[in-house]
Amino acid sequence: MSITNITTDQSMGSWAGNGNLSWVAPPADATEGQGTNGDILNVHNGATLTIKGYLNLNAGIVNITEGATVQVVRDESDTAGILQDAAGGTININNGTLSISNDFNGRTGVYNITNGKLVVNHVFTGFEGVYNVNSGGVFVAGLECSNLMSPKINIRGGSVYFYNLIDDISGTAKIDFHNTPGGLLKIENTSLSSLSNLDLHVQNFVYGDQIKIQSYTDYSSNTLTTSISGNDLLIQGTVNGNTTTLVTLKNFVTNTNGNAIPTAMYRDGYILFGEQSDTGACFLAGAMIETSNGCVAVEDIQVGDVLVAHVRGQTVSRSVIWAGRQFVVVNSALSDDMAGYPVRVCQNAIAEGVPSKDLLITPEHCLVL
Fold first, then answer.
1. Residue 117 in contact with residue 140, Cβ under 8 Å?
2. Where is each Hedgehog/Intein (Hint) domain found (predicted)?
3. Helix, strand, or coil (residue 56)
4. Do the strands 117-120 and 138-141 form a parallel or antiparallel pair, or are they unpaired?
5. Residues 365 and 281: beta-carbon distance below 8 Å
6. DSSP states of 271-283 as a string?
7. What is the DSSP string of 306-317?
8. Quick one: what percent of the chain has pLDDT higher than 70?
9. Sheet with 294-297, side-by-side order of all strands
10. Is residue 362 within 8 Å of 282, Cβ to Cβ?
11. Closest by alpha carbon to 112, among 124, 100, 98, 125?
12. Which stretches in the chain have pLDDT values below 50?
């Protein structure tokens, strides 16, 4: 086993892990491949490593950190630019980028992406690999075509993009949101009828996660609703009193997960799940609410609690009849006033002791002065 450290921009030919290969599919929650004694390639310190040829993972370990980039490109004969023979290897991307210019065969490898990107520019083949897309992680799973072939895709606040045809499932494709808000699954160039026939298992989807599916048909005149049929999620459209099922996500509901049933809407060529047009007016956690028993943090308010309210200038008591919470995903690509950032009302901003400490609220929240 050898260790190679890359800290400056440079190029090399093909790289191989040279470890003890494993063709056994790793567990769904794996963070490292099942191969052993592979070579280690560390690319960090903002360096760009260009591999002209093949990245043969071969049970090896590749670490891309500290703003570094690894780009696997075609060689002088215009061939390769491929990641292949993963065979139980591991790739860790943390504040880095891995770009594969040609095909990607992730067979039985494990790929961890946090605050970085894995971009497959041609054909992606998942082949029983585990893909952990964590907060700040972006996984572009094939710009040309996506052959899933039983991958386990774990979305923990990251984003996964299928930009072109999902062509081959060949077994169950598990996509697990892990009850973590902020995750995104985006599917393009796959017809709704084809998608309905795929054996995608979407699990542990919660409020704050999003699924976006491109539609070739304009459904802006439809009222979109979601319902459950057995273990499947049906997205239906109603126009002029006629309701039809537009797309089915099979096995969305299972006995082992707690999926939230998302709302649906059509906008700008996409059917959207879990994306709300209005996040509602809310206090953020930590805001103190005056009750009959003193001030209580908003997240601890329960149905039946008695709050102190002000109605037409009078102080009155009101019982809580509903208590809930929701998650908001900030879209930093928009302007600050549209992105969904909370508003901070600083301590003493309105009057001495009002508020008594910094108060965080959603932009929609009104204040009575």
1. yes
2. 282-369
3. strand
4. parallel
5. yes
6. EEES--S-----B
7. EEEEEETTEEEE
8. 91
9. 294-297, 288-291, 306-311, 314-319
10. yes
11. 98
12. 255, 276-279
Q: Got the DSSP string for 231-266?
A: TEEEEEEEETTEEEEEEEETT-S-TT-------EEE
Give the other-Cβ count within 10 Å of 287's Cβ.
21
**Distances from the Cα of 341 to the Cα of 208, 263, 331, 332, angstroms:** 14, 22, 8, 9
Tell how strand 359-361 and strand 343-345 pair up. Answer: antiparallel
Q: Which residue has the tokens 């002029």?
A: 240
pLDDT on residue 63: 98
What pLDDT sits at residue 334?
64
Amino acid at 324: G
Would strands 288-291 and 294-297 be described as parallel, antiparallel, or unpaired?
Answer: antiparallel
Amino acid at position 223, single letter: T
3-state secondary structure of 120: strand
In the three-class reduction of DSSP (H, G, I as helix; E, B as strand; rest coil), residue 136 is classed as coil
Q: With contact defined as beta carbons under 8 Å apart, do 228 and 202 qualify?
A: no
User: Residue 337 burial (CB < 10 Å; 0-12/13-18/19+)?
Assistant: exposed
pLDDT of 281 reads 64
Tell me how crowded residue 225 is: count the other CB atoms within 10 A of its CB.
13
What is the pLDDT at residue 201?
83
Distance CA 6, CA 288 (A): 51
Rounded distance between C-alpha atoms, residue 207 and residue 198, angstroms: 24
Q: Answer whether 30's CB lies under 8 Å from 110's CB.
A: yes
Residue 247: strand pairing partners: 235
Q: Which residue has the tokens 């963070």?
A: 31
Cα 44 to its chain centre, rounded Å, is 25
Contact 64, 43 (CB under 8 A): yes
Of the candidates 113, 116, 212, the one whose C-alpha atom is nearest the C-alpha of residue 154 is 113
Q: What is the pLDDT of residue 277?
A: 42
DSSP structure class, residue 76: T
